[in-house]
Amino acid sequence: MAIQLPADASPVHYEGELAAVIGRPCKDVSAARAVENIMGYTIANDVSARDQQQADGQWTRAKGHDTFCPVGPWIVTDIDPSDLDLRTEVNGQTRQHSRTSLMTHDIGAIVEWVSAVMTLLPGDLILTGTPDGVGPIEDGDTVSITVEGIGTLANPVVRKGKS
């Protein structure tokens, strides 16, 4: 599926991320028990309209456009996410390259923090943050995010209204 760039947004950035998929309802989960509530992991592109993020002072509109945040290519249920290679390419050129072991917050801490605020339900996605190298995407680009052991999520980029 193509990422559609809104006519009223510029710049729009890619953000390659590992995503945890919640497997059962949970609330107030400790970091040590977070893995018990995770069904598996997938890849997400947390696409962001930076001008809208800055203008609004929050992220709802900037990250909420139709086609933003594509995920996939599937959910892997038998992987240790603690030290996976993550690479984002735009048109075949590496823009982000890091390891999940270098994330600011580990997945257990993220699940603990989020579940303290809200009940998590099966199928909920928790994006884990993006490494350095975030940058703009333009009409005609292709963004590919690869996470070791999961696969590659690839999406063409088009200006909204084009097919």
Which band does the percent of strand residues land in? 35-45%
Number of strands: 12
Estimate the mean pLDDT confidence.
Answer: 96
Strand order of the largest sheet: 1-12-11-7-8
Uncertain segments of ≥5 residues (pLDDT<50)? none
- How many helices? The count is 3
Form type = globular
Radius of gyration: 16 Å
What order do the helices and strands come in, and which of them pair?
Layout (H helix, E strand, L loop, with lengths): L2 E3 L6 E3 L1 E7 L15 E8 L2 E2 H7 L3 H4 L7 E6 L8 E6 L2 E7 L7 H11 L7 E3 L7 E2 L5 E6 L3 E9 L4
Parallel strand pairs: 1-12
Antiparallel strand pairs: 2-5, 2-10, 3-4, 3-9, 4-6, 7-8, 7-11, 11-12
What does it look like?
With 163 residues, the protein is mainly beta. Helix content is 13%, strand content 38%. The chain contains three helices and twelve strands; from the N terminus they run βββββααβββαββββ. The chain has helices spanning 50-56, 60-63, 107-117, and strands at residues 3-5, 12-14, 16-22, 38-45, 48-49, 71-76, 85-90, 93-99, 125-127, 135-136, 142-147, 151-159. It has a five-stranded mixed beta sheet with strand order 1-12-11-7-8, with no helix packed on it. A four-stranded antiparallel beta sheet has the order 6-4-3-9, with helices on one face. It starts with a strand and ends with a strand. 32% of the residues are buried.
In summary, what is this structure?
The chain is mainly beta and 163 residues long. The protein is 13% helix and 38% strand.
